[in-house]
User: Fold this.
Amino acid sequence: MEIRLKHLTKTFPGNPKKNIPDTHAVEDMNLTVTDGKLFALLGPSGCGKSTTLYMIAGLLEPTSGEIWFGDEDVTALAPEKRGIGLVFQNYALYPHMTVYKNVAFPLTNLRIEEKILDKDGKEVLGPDGKPLVSKRRLSKDEIDKLVHETAKIVQIEEYLWRKPSQLSGGQQQRVAIARALVKHPRVLLLDEPLSNLDARLRLQTREEIRRIQQETGITTIFVTHDQEEAMSISDSLVVMKLGVKQQIGLPQDVYNEPDNRFVANFLGTPPINFYGGRIKGNKIYIGKAMVREITEKKIPNQDVTVGIRPEGIVIDPEGPLTLHVERILTMGRDIMLVASNPDELRPEKFVIDAFEKVGVGDVRVSIKPHKCFAFSKEGKEEKLI
Assistant:
């Protein structure tokens, strides 16, 4: 199911009497989520990602704009009529029910439509020429079949007769996903589903979410503030800031070619390193060190902010840039250098291969051109190169 947002906006009114201004939670959002893909809404707290998700779910009414599921405008449609499955970060499982009953609960009042057939097995048409339908509840056998099919997909079959309190956090999260999937929704919506799990369990569960999404083929929107989660499992993502879309694209493309300083800073662990610099003669300088020659296009001379990815340095005795290594952190396959530049003094973090021989003190490095960016110092601080 393709999802399209057209000029979607949500404003929460303020209180003029108390000098509280309106809050523009989402502003003029336009994006398309491709059918059968996993799409991440990514950004810091307060950027509008959950508000966007709740409007897609029908839990919040947009101030303006449209929400389309395929060829259907669902902007004014009630949540229960949109065909969505929604998973919250706190799981919201019923503690007194077994896993089986938690998963089956959405089916207990579900009514399915069936076409009315005549004695010859032909569709009975109404006055408008459309087939007449009847509604009925699912039988116990039908519910049982759906619960077991869904439990198999999320791998919780052996837990069906346990209570939620007898499960780990990751297992509870899979139960919540099963409950959202059991109705065969058109769209699966996940609101920070991993935030309550420890680091190792987050890693395992996000891989499970990706597996489940690929096996079911359900269009999925995943809200997170964790860029590593978004980068690792999504087919595409949008980075948001203060309700405004900053950049949309494939995760690696957004990382490799950030549109502005905010996006560059938000994606990457450790984060990108920033230095005051300048462009002169189509070359990028940090202090007196020329760190990159610009060959792609002509850029006027100007002061800029230079961004260097942590993995963007190469130990090079003839390199142009001097770093003063203050600490060395061993990370197994890599080494992290906490180092400062004489022109900046502020320590930054760089990552090099573990086989490199580096000690505390000054070291000269060269810069990988594709890991070095220049950002304007005005407005949105857009990437110049």
Notes: The longest strand covers residues 23-33. Residues 325 and 361 are 5 Å apart (CA to CA).
